[in-house]
Design goal:
This protein is α+β, with helices and mostly antiparallel strands and 94 residues long. It is 43% helix and 18% strand. The protein has a single domain, classed as 2-Layer Sandwich (Alpha-Beta Plaits), CATH 3.30.70.270. It has a two-stranded antiparallel sheet. A two-stranded antiparallel ribbon has the order 3-4.
């Protein structure tokens, strides 16, 4: 499943962008400035169709957190993580 997710994410980014798995089911996409929203929209669209794993058809959700700012990796990851969990919380409260 993680390999399929990674391939879908790789199709969402442009040449020069980076897709990395940071643990569990969490991935980070490092994209050039100005492309954040466009790539986030592509990621959301990429998860609309179900995943086929063997004989199983699975629907998987995605939460996207966007961080911009100076190139401080730790701060950017923390900001993106905070944004992602805000998206998750908003889904639960509906």
């Amino acid at each position: 499943m993680l390999r399929i997710v990674a391939r879908r994410l790789e199709r969402c980014v442009r040449a020069g962008d980076t897709v990395a798995r940071i643990g569990g089911d969490e991935f980070v996409l490092h994209v050039g400035a100005g492309a954040e929203q466009e790539v986030a929209d592509r990621v959301r669209t990429a998860f609309v169709d179900p995943f086929v794993v063997g004989a199983e058809v699975l629907r998987v959700g995605v939460s996207v957190g966007i961080a911009t700012g100076p190139p401080d990796a730790d701060a950017l990851l923390a900001q993106a993580d905070e944004e992602m969990y805000a998206v998750k919380r908003s889904r639960i409260s509906r």
